[in-house]
Amino acid sequence: MRGLFAVLFTAIWCFAGGASAQSLGAYKDKLFSYPKILEKNQNGSFLRLDYRVERDIDERDQIRGAKVRGFYVSMRGRKGQQDLSLNSGPGRIDYARTGQVRGAQWIVVYLHGRGGDRSQGISDYNFGGNFNRLKNLAVRNRGLYLVPSINDFGVKGAREVAALIGHYAAQAPGAKIVLACGSMGGQICWQYLKGEVAVTALSGALMLATHADNQFLASSHLSANGRPLPIVFGHGTLDGAFSWEKTKALFDSIQVARSGYPVRMRLFNTGKHGTPIRMIDWRQELNWIFANG
Fold first, then answer.
1. Rounded to whole angstroms, how far apart are CA atoms 187 and 192?
2. Fewer C-beta neighbours within 10 Å, C or N terminus of the chain?
3. What is the pLDDT of residues 79-112, one digit of tens each?
């Protein structure tokens, strides 16, 4: 009997510890893990990865660039998926959501680039099925995934997205909130990271194929007593929209500005503008943000 109590106590203790630490369980890790590491720095915060079109697009997609092969996808990620609108002070914002609303332990908000809309980040088959993986991680791990349609990348748009985040943060007190910012969507994210537009407290950000904003170096997060905000940069070496060298320079400068600051960079060798969105390992990077945020 005592042995049974010991087992039950251990199970309860592990569950409570796992919940407090917030760690996402494995889901299709072999399919979505990073390719071979070509280069890394001493502590592994910088990785240059062996991205190859022949393997990572041609072999992965059933229809090149439009539909991934079926075994990368699970429709369980659509549980609770809806297209909705929110009317707030800044204005109306249309968005999609999936996962748990009330009591969510974490919230990821994906912000698309210019010319896109919410359909990009909620798609199951585009970008190699990587968004479907994120949706499944949310559904299977008490998370909530939000994808707003952005019509303004300036202050108005940033305030609309902040209202959306605040709306759902109020229904999930204590949830860790992470931004995933693709391309021009980074314009909104930088406004939050620099403190130019107020938003519910963030736990971290993934800056994917977006521009480097050196004004972040003067933000409160980098001050001696500031709250560190974990950041993951993802970029391709053949990105024709935003320079990976400038992102790498900002990554290096952040580490110099504050020793030990939680920042990472994943550089996809020969990758183009959309490559980090297709190739980022959501589970690995989100778990790192949760552990450091």
1. 9
2. N
3. 989 999 999 989 999 999 999 999 999 999 999 9
Structural tokens at position 51: 């991205």
**Which residue's entry shows tokens 């900002």?**
250
DSSP 202: P
**79 CB neighbour count, 10 Å cutoff:** 14
How far apart CA 253 and CA 264 sit, in angstroms, is: 12
The domains found in the chain, sorted by start residue, are 25-292 (3.40.50.1820)
Both structure tokens of 259: 């020793």
Q: How far apart are CA 37 and CA 34, in angstroms?
A: 8
Predicted TM-score of the model (pTM): 0.91
Distance CA 129, CA 273 (A): 17
| Angle at which helices 155-169 and 186-193 cross, to 10° | 70
Give per-residue pLDDT as tens, 141-181: 999 999 999 999 999 999 999 999 999 999 999 999 999 99
**DSSP element (H, E) containing 107:** strand 106-111
